[in-house]
Amino acid sequence: MRNQTLRLLLDGEYICEIAHRHAYEYLLSDGHNQFVNEWLDAINMRLARVGEAGAFFIAPLGLSSDDTTRIRDEFLRFRDVYGPAIRMLQVIRAAKDEFEMIPGAYIQHAELVQKVNDSPATGEQLRNLVSTIRQTDTRYSNAELMKKLLEHLRGDGYLVLVDEATEMYRTTGKLEQLTHVLRFLSENVDFSKGQKEQADAADSADDLFDKAQK
Amino acid sequence: MSRSKPVNDRDQVQKILSTLHQHSDIVSMSMVGQVSSSDANAATDKGIIALANVGALLPVGEGVFQLNPRIRRFLSDRLTQFSAMQSLTRITEQLHSAQAQWSALIEMRTSGDVADKAEIEESLGITVGEILYFVQQNLRLLNHQTTADFGNVESMRRKIRQNRFYAGNIKVLIAELDSLGAFLDKVDREGVQYGLYNMRNLLVGQIRPQMGEWRHRLNEIQAKISEKLFVRRQIDADLRLLLDAALWMESNPTLNGMEVELGQHPSATLLTPTRIAVQPHYDVSPMGGSQERLMTSVASKLPPPRAKPTAKEQKSRHVVIATTAEMEDEELAPADILVQELVHSMRSGQGKAFELLQWERERRLGAGIGDEEWLFYASNQLAIAGVYTELQIAPTTTDTVNAVFDGVMAFPN
């Protein structure tokens, strides 16, 4: 497991319980964490986690000026870098009432398609993403588009396919990285205007999104 | 305090338990739904009727029965099978009974009428047992329902709703424990006052030592629920972040991104890891017999090498940017060195016309260059270099056709 885990880290993967369960358990078991850190230290890297108990990933020992430049650049290109995932997750959220921004949430293709077919507004939201989702065409049906959307997110590491027969997907630990970035932005730029007012009405959160969708 | 029971009663208990035991498969079946006698075989049908006769199954329709809720509750408690929103068992009823029974005991003590004292004491004992059992069971239920992340509900949202439900239930239970505490204080006080020491010890001794632990566990569960409700709010907040980001993109269609001040020590999580490419190569250097055998076996399976196609002329465009002809200094022969020195000497203006034969004769002969070949070679080389030469022809004594020369004069320009 050691080799696979190290390879996953070098590949830039986020290692969470859902996407790479065995590697995740390997890193959690005693001593392995330290070994991996020592190994990475030789190439000036370290084992990092999203938050305190999130997915593992590889990070530089210390962020260089090149690294901070890259972060800044990614924020300057926010729409290109994070925009697609955000818009696609929005569609999933609109098509699935119970959707949570947490790793491990189940998403079934058929369930989303049914909602999209029943709700013209959600269908339109999906079709607006034709140019964003990889390998799509306007002549595709809602079901085909939704499948491509899920596969796009899978390709980007936000989802894993857990059952091919039922087309059941699950969200991965990479979702927490996106959340972390969005939280950072909400705290540092005028990005989350109006969020505070919404937070005050946390108990009626069920309606917030529907309200915003109108 | 104990009261002897009629033998018949005991027989009844045994009969009921025996029936339950005999038809335990039907009892088990009825735990997960209703049972119907219409689509059952003869043995099952007989069992259903037997269970219905002892009140273990209750009719709910034509030939359809369900398990007695008390038995279901008992089995669920034992098996820790709690329904999603199962309420806590209220102890208020038992508390009221205990208060009434205690008041009755005091009244007997003051009036002196002790006819039913033993019965009331036994009832009070049972009530205390019920209170203990129900509170313990409630704590088990709460612990089970609040610790599992999803437990017996389908989603986190419903889980939170369930936690809210239990948060309300706990408040009621705590209020009941307060009432129980007040009642125990009263028993403690009046027990001494009216000399009801046995009952006082039973009530206070059995319940009070556990009250502290119950409260502690309830507080713990309350904290857990509160934490989970917080997580819920956090998740809502995360979804709002997603919404905010989407709204920002919609309301700023001309902006691709934003300028952000990262601060002194930005979190590494903001930096998405990039792939560090590792390209493995096989080490073909001999590392021992086994590896050599392996390599030989692999090589033997490889297809024969293809005939190398003739190298095509590259079509790429060549541009000569600059070039200098590299001059290689040729190593001169001794004769050439002598000629070179001779030309140099004549051009430097030192020389006069002189006999070629005399030029560095000793050196020349030392290098193995004879007179005759020197004269032929040097006169030609000097002529090429533009030096005028003249043959020294000796006067002929014989009648020969060819003139004979025995020297060459070289004239500087």
Written account of the structure:
The complex is a heterodimer of chains A (about 210) and B (about 425). Chain A is mainly alpha-helical and about 210 residues long. Helix content of chain A is about 55%, strand content about 10%. Chain A has a three-stranded antiparallel beta sheet with strand order 3-5-4. In chain A, helix 7 packs across helix 9. The longest helix of chain A is centred in the C-terminal third of the chain and has 15 residues, at about 175-190. In chain B, the strands form two sheets. Chain B has a three-stranded antiparallel beta sheet with strand order 1-3-2. A three-stranded antiparallel beta sheet of chain B has the order 4-6-5, with helices on one face. Helix content of chain B is about 60%, strand content about 5%. In chain B, helix 5 (about 90-110) packs parallel to helix 7. In chain B, strand 2 and strand 3 (about 65) form a beta hairpin. Chain B has helices at about 5-20, 25-30, 40-55, 70-80, 90-110, 115-145, 155-195, 195-250, 290-300, 335-345, 360-365, 370-385, and strands at about 35, 55-60, 65, 355, 390-395, 405-410. Chain B contains twelve helices and six strands. At the A-B interface, strand 2, helix 4, helix 5, helix 6 and helix 10 of A face helix 8 of B.
